[in-house]
Design a protein that fits this description.
Chain lengths: 251, 60, 101
Amino acid sequence: MVSLSNSLSFISSPLDQFEIRTLLSLDAPILANMEITVTNIGFYLIVGVSIAFILNGLATNYYQITIYATIHSIVVNQINRTKGQIYFPFIFSLFIFILVNNLIGMIPYGFASTSHFVLTFSISFTIVLGATILGLQKHGLEFFSLFVPAGCPLALLPLLVLVEFLSYVSRNVSLGLRLAANIVAGHLLLHILSSLTYNIMTSGFIFFFMALLPLSFVIAFSGLELAIAFIQSQVFVVLTCSYIKDALELH
Amino acid sequence: MIQASKIIGTGLATTGLIGAGVGIGVVFGALILGVARNPSLRGQLFSYAILGFAFAEATG
Amino acid sequence: MSFIAKRGISTLIPPKVASPAGLGAAKDAVRMSRVVDFYTKLPKGPAPPRKTPGLLGGYQDKYFGKKASGMPIVHVIVGIMAIGYAQAYYFHIRHHKNNAH
């Protein structure tokens, strides 16, 4: 049992990689002890946004056109062929932002900003709240007909309205939770698997070759995580589009 | 003993992933069935399948 | 009537094709040599690619546009790995140099 706990203490906590550390901070005893800090999440968000800006400024070809066509078809299909076009810039920049931050997380020694619930929840709450305001502005009080399913018996109405309302409110959480939970789970899995592989590899000559099997798993899961980085940003955008559509057209 | 049970418990906790695995399998199996029945709907069904994959994956 | 008769006369006179001044042609030779000179000094061959102005113009010419390549992705990866390793070293690795956790 002693040797077991010894070998366990070798493994660092897999949650270490998500730790937020202060890089630069400015503490001033003015304005109620204001404190301006650049943490590593802030730093990597700045890096991600600058990458997105530079790529969009420089890319004159293929890079952009594929992404552009994909997002444009999502917007057109999900929202509306004519009325949906004005939401395209928002959806496009949202997609690029999430995708770039997911991919920065996949780089070794990088940092996954989208694994932080603070970030994803603030994005998703903003989106759902914005869609609600959009619907209220467009339809007035008629917007609340969104919570009444068409052709339901009057006796069931209170229950169904409650259920619909709950499902509408839970969009806030589920949209951000899905993205962050996927990224966190993927990074934890990769970290645990790779530290296992490292421990096996360093424990002996024969073990080095035995560890090639878990190493191949690590590589395969890295590929899966890359795919998930794309899929999650696409799903985020698709759901955003469908929420905007709900607000615009009320079913 | 407690240490060992902790580790076994950690392992058991990961069995929840079975459900996510089954879900992903169902999604893509249904995609293949749908495309086999009507190949012209392939693009639309694929985007729905990706959406379903993400939903199932999010629970795991 | 008289108008038409006048025109008939004017067509009868042949045009003045050759004259003593025209036969010498010294003026035209000077002009032609200038024209030839101008055209021989023009650059030959296909036009050189235009340089994109701006801070990252050279980078864009090198890796985007006509000869697009995946190298920018590699540059981004290398840059972020360098920055990330520096951070990991500062906060974490140097505390575990000799004793692994």
